[in-house]
Amino acid sequence: MSQSQSSVTAQDEIASTYERNGFVVPIDVLSQSQAQRLRADLETAEAELASDSEKLALLKAYPDRLLPSFDALTRNETLIAAASAVLGPDLMVWSAGLFIKEANSPKIVSWHQDLTYWGLDDICETTCWFALSTASEQAGCMKFVPGSHKTKIVPHVDTYAEDNLLSRGQEIAVEVDEKEAVAAALEAGQASMHHGLLFHSSGPNATCDRRIGSAIRYIKPSMKQQTGDQPLVSLVSGQDHFGHFNIAGAPKGRLTEEDFEMCRQDKALKQRLLY
CA 185: distance to chain centroid? Predict the structure, then answer.
């Protein structure tokens, strides 16, 4: 089943569609030329860090903490309006990591629910998945099962499959009816938004271009880690009245050592927190 490419814009339409289906797609965020400039900034940074695997991994996990252009993306008014339609005006970014499938890559993401592994105490989270390149069905776009967010967290198993982009090959341990799945195809500059309990996955990239996306995880400031730890977040809209997280400011510059060190410390913390 393919998803219509008519962009969803009105906040009330976003809220009702999200409540019904658990996702909204597509949302027009940037022009294709703007998305291309953002991609060029990323790929320039990748080239600059090509000989440093540790920093390259940090860039992919924390683009918004290391590149001002990606920090600006998380604060984009269209994304903020979409996330605010379902979470309210106060928003933090819990992470904004990159999901990259190289050209002609067999890498997949198995069926899973995001909130299974993050150690957060509530479900007041939404992910805006922004496409820096075309994410067609052939390129391995995401697939969603409409309405599956209305379930609780279901059992998952760790497969450790080599072709799985998830850290442990996490996979839903109950049967998923793939005939019900909707392909969330995106053009560069568009985004989808999905609930943290929604069943979703993505297939391999059978095209000659990279499939690049940033998964921006917006949360309410009322959320907290179940352990009481305070990982790094950015406050992108409204106010924080709770103090549950370590709020970072904008990047100090482009790929600065100070920002890399902050990301190293947060990575060490999250390796303990993530289930």
Answer: 15
Strand bridging mode 23-28 / 156-158:
unpaired
CB atoms inside a 10 Å sphere around CB 11: 13
Q: To which residue do tokens 């406050």 refer?
A: 235
- Cα 273 to Cα 119: distance, rounded to the nearest angstrom: 6
Secondary structure of the chain as H, E, C letters = CECCCCCCCCHHHHHHHHHHHCEEEEEECCCHHHHHHHHHHHHHHHHHCCCCHHHHHHHHHCHHHHCHHHHHHHCCHHHHHHHHHHHCCCEEEEECCEEEECCCECCEEEEECHHHCCCECCCCEEEEEEECCCECCCCCCEEECCCHHHCCCCCEEECCCCCECCCCCEEECCCCCHHHCEECCECCCEEEEEECCCCEEECCECCCCCEEEEEEEEECCCCCECCCCCCEEEEEECCCCCCCCEECCCCCCCCCHHHHHHHHHHHHHHHHHCC
C-alpha distances (whole Å) from 28 to each of 24, 120, 131, 183 are: 11, 29, 10, 17
The predicted-structure confidence for 25-58, as pLDDT tens digits, reads as follows: 999 999 999 999 999 999 999 999 999 999 999 9
The CB-side HSE value for 60 (13 A sphere, CA atoms) comes to 14
Separation CA 177–CA 162 (nearest Å): 24
Cβ atoms of 137 and 185 within 8 Å: the answer is yes
Domain 11-273 listed as CATH 3.20.20.70: no
| pLDDT tens sequence across 157-181 | 677 777 777 666 677 767 788 899 9
- Closest-CA residue to 233 (of 198, 263, 193, 253): 263
